[in-house]
Design a protein that fits this description.
This protein is mainly β. The protein contains 1 helix and 10 strands; from the N terminus they run βββββββαβββ. The mean pLDDT is 96.
């Protein structure tokens, strides 16, 4: 049996606006924090619209600096469909680079690792294809936003 290798097809780009980080303190596995998601944009050939002012990234920062990203938020397409986004990822890099990212500097994302896998869900038949697809993304952190390019795994 010969299995096909997956292909990645660009699906959309997101700019996710963030409120200041809420530090929870140490948890069972590492430092816990909540990053409120307060809006943004989605641009792509098949999906475009706005990130809604709801949701958050529930992060765990481990002792070695690895950030585990666990987000849940939503978008409204340009034609009114609501799509839930559940996005899980990892961010890490050299300590001096991650210190610059944490300070809000505009650091080239090629200097650190930020990758995600994403599930989208909707009840709107026009976008039903998202319920049957998996997505992976590459991202970068800015002072008050995250930029993510999402790719459908085909």
């Amino acid at each position: 049996m010969s299995l096909p290798a997956p292909r990645l097809v660009h699906a959309f780009d997101m700019v996710v606006r963030l409120d200041p980080i809420l530090e929870m303190g140490p948890g069972r596995a590492g430092r816990r924090r909540i990053v409120p998601i307060v809006g943004g944009t989605v641009e792509g050939e098949r999906i475009r619209g706005e990130i809604l002012d709801l949701g958050a990234d529930w992060q765990t920062i481990f002792a070695d600096g690895l950030a585990e990203l666990d987000t849940r938020y939503a978008l409204r397409t340009h034609d009114g469909a609501l799509i839930e986004i559940v996005n899980y990822g990892l961010r890490h890099g050299p300590p001096e680079v991650m210190a610059r990212v944490a300070a809000g500097e505009d650091v080239d994302p090629s200097q650190y690792y930020m990758r995600t896998h994403c599930r989208l869900e909707t009840g709107d038949a026009r976008y039903g294809w998202v319920n049957r697809a998996l997505f992976v993304g590459t991202g970068g952190r800015r002072a008050a936003s995250v930029v993510i390019s999402m790719f459908e795994i085909c």
